[in-house]
Each structure stands twice: as C-alpha cells, then as structure tokens.
C-alpha cells in the first residue's frame, strides 16, 4: 500500500536463533583477543536479553566483519563447522540450542557461570567433537539425544563432579562422538538426556480419565 510506513529494522524483534548467532560471534571475538573477559560478559548479558535487532547490533558495532560475521539474520544451517570454537564465561550464562553448528573442537573455560550445550537440534557435520573444558566453580551441561555419545573418562575432578546420566540407545547409530578432556576444580560437568516434551492442553484433555456415568435412580 502506498504511503505505508516501513518499520525500522533496528526495532524489529529478534529471535532465539539471532541471539545465539550474536553470542557465538562475541565468543569468537573474545577468542581472537578482541574482547576482554569482562567485556565479553557484559556483551553476552546484553545479547542474551536483547529483544530487537538494534540491541543485538549494538554489541557488534565495533567488531570487524571477520569477527562479527555477516549482518543479521543469517541461516545457521548453511554455515560450515569451525575447526576451533571457544566459550569463555566468568559469571554469565551461555546456551547453545536449536540449529547451532557443532565445530570440530570446542574449548570451554568457565569461572562461576554456566554453559549449556543442547545437541538435540544441532547441525552435526562431523562424526567427532573434541571438548577441552576448564571448570572452576561453574557448570557445563550437555543435553544429548540417544545417537550422541559422550566420553568423560579423561576429565580430572578435584572437588566437583563429572557425571553422565544420559542413556544411549545401543541399537541407534552413533551420529556424534563427544570426547571431553580437561579439569573440574569445584564445579561440575553433567551429561543428560533431553526432557520429554510437555503435553499440550489438548493432549492433556484427551488423557483425562473419563467420568463414570451416573446410575439411574
């Protein structure tokens, strides 16, 4: 319609995928030495709570295109897996879920924050993922479907814990083998299966027990 106002792109609402992409770009920039740990934490907090493209673009404004990546939005599934990706967290929380691209190697350093990696909808192009983790008083959680196997045998635990509570399906082909090495000082590394999907309201109604018919008087 002629005369119709075109909304400012910076005011458009961002999606979970957009936020995840910006988080990954910030982590790459920190791994390249462009951001300090404090700057990374500050920008991650903004990115994870951003509601518009303008808020997301504000944390990438002073980063070159090679570190910040292409303009939003961009399709994650089309991206090639990186050789090495880094996640450095002091006190913030970082989540990777949905169609994020699994790299060949992932280096994780957690101070007192939390990192969650959900492989349920991840884009897996390689058969093996090497993770080197250094967990102080924070936590690293891996959510894995039955066709993703995780090996924790080479993780050194000082006073924390490293537990694998996932139950792989022996009959399912292994789509991804995750090999974790590193140290846990007083934090934790947990591996668990995805939570079962919640029933919709309609499903809940269908599963309600039928009431007994009243007896005739």
How would you describe this structure to a colleague?
The structure is a single chain. Mean pLDDT is 81; it is low at 1-7, 67-78 and 210-217. The chain has a five-stranded parallel β-sheet with strand order 1-3-5-9-7. Strands 2-4-6-10-8 form a five-stranded parallel β-sheet. Helix 1 (16-31) runs antiparallel to helix 2 (37-49). Helix content is 21%, strand content 29%. It folds into two domains: 8-74, no CATH class; 76-195, no CATH class. The termini are far apart. It has 217 residues and is an alpha/beta fold. The radius of gyration is 21 Å and the shape is globular.
Low-confidence stretches: 1-7, 67-78, 210-217
> What is the gyration radius calculated from CA atoms?
21 Å
Shape by Cα distribution: globular
Average pLDDT taken over every residue: 81
Would you report the number of β strands?
Answer: 10
Going across the major beta sheet, what is the strand order? 1-3-5-9-7
Largest sheet: 5 strands, parallel
Q: Secondary-structure element sequence? A: HHHHEEEEEEEEEEH
Number of helices: 5
* Helicity range: 10-25%
By secondary-structure content and strand pairing, the structural class works out as: alpha/beta
Portion of residues in beta strands equals 25-35%
Domain tally:
2
């Amino acid at each position: 319609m002629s005369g119709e106002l075109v909304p400012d792109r910076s005011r458009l609402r961002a999606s979970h995928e957009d936020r995840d992409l910006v988080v990954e770009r910030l982590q790459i920039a920190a791994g390249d030495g462009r951001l300090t740990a404090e700057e990374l934490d500050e920008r991650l907090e903004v990115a994870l709570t951003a509601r518009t493209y303008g808020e997301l673009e504000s944390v990438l404004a002073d980063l070159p295109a090679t570190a910040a990546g292409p303009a939003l939005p961009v399709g994650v599934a089309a991206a090639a897996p990186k050789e090495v990706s880094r996640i450095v967290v002091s006190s913030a929380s970082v989540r990777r879920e949905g169609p994020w691209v699994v790299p060949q190697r992932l280096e994780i350093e957690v101070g007192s924050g939390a990192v969650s990696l959900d492989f349920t909808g991840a884009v897996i192009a390689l058969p093996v993922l090497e993770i080197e983790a250094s967990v102080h008083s924070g936590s690293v959680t891996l959510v894995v479907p039955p066709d993703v196997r995780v090996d924790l045998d080479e993780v050194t635990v000082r006073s924390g814990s490293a537990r694998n509570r996932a139950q792989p399906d022996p009959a399912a082909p292994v789509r991804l083998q995750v090999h974790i090495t590193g140290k846990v000082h007083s934090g934790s590394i947990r591996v668990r299966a995805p939570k079962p999907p919640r029933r919709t309201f309609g499903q809940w109604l269908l599963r309600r027990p039928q009431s007994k018919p009243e007896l005739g008087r």
